[in-house]
Amino acid sequence: MALILLIAAWSVGATRLWHTDVPGSLNVSGLDVTRWFTARQLEQARSYWRFVEVDWALGTLATLVALAILAWRAPRIARGIGLGPIGSGVIVGMLTLVTLWFVALPFSFAQQWWDARHGLAPHDYLAWLAAPWASLSFEAGYALVVIVFVMWLARRLGRGWWLVGAPVFVGLAVLFAFLQGFVAVSGTTAAKPALRARIVRLEQAEGVAVPVRVQKVSGWTKEANAFTSGIGPSTRVVVWDTLLDGRFSRGEVNVVVAHELGHVARKHIWKGLAWVALLAFPAAFLIAEATRSRGGLGRPGAIPLAFLVLTVASLLALPIENAVSRRYEAEADWAALQATRDPASPASLFRSFARTSLEEPSPPTWDYWLLENHPTLAQRIA
Prior knowledge:
It is a single chain. Helices cover about 70% and strands about 5% of the residues. A 4-stranded mixed beta sheet has the order 1-2-4-3. The chain is built from 13 helices and 4 strands.
């Protein structure tokens, strides 16, 4: 009975989080892409994405193999460290994170080289390598804190650690999201007065007011983007300087900013954290059960196995995760359309993404489910 009640509560929560305010009567399928994109654009995008898809598949396979090897060797490695269970666990955790970074590096480099070859990035690989270090260091530190806490719980509570650990994971995720808002704006600058005046009008239309910052990324990419980060007082919207380099009209820039403000107004990061809360208990239970064969997560040798299980589970959940993300992105598009009242600008913006980012207007079905966390360009135009 308890299990039935939990499943019912989970289903109600998931249903409510799935809901958006995009009218259900809108038909965003069946758009003829040849009306909006030339045959050359379609072929260029398909050619570009074939390499990206293969690179992603090989990188994912390499990650799984590396984790499997680490999971096999970790008990012997941990015994030789001699710093006690938690101290050895920190070393094994650091070894796992560093190994994953080095395994992913060749595939990330290949992606950067491919982008540069297609005019989407400069051939400045040092700038590309240095760009994400602030965020990576923060994420690595967060992961080590989680490892220490979980090992301590597992050693104190035994098999039932996940019952206490799951809600604490949610609390740590909320803290991470809050701090990420400040980390994301490191090295950014304030929007110029002309852009700021347009932002104020969009904020009034959407009923929100958040700092909008500009991040210089042109040293390592030519693609245009913007994102929302943080929760509560740490909420920030960050616009890449490549969006402001003259390739996009004022109306198109307004659409991008309004889209990000739409994420804030619809509380999409908070909803993402609510999904974390829904998934925390089954994920923690799965890890607890999978690591029992290694003596539980209180033993340092079980940490790479926990990473492997979590990675496999994340891959299996990708279609659901992407489906949720696409709904929220569609809702942000709808919010931007309502705020700007300018349907021509988003249509031209999405058409330009096929040129400036080589996005594929209508990707293959498997690509759509596994790799696309935004609606397709065809859906967004529709």
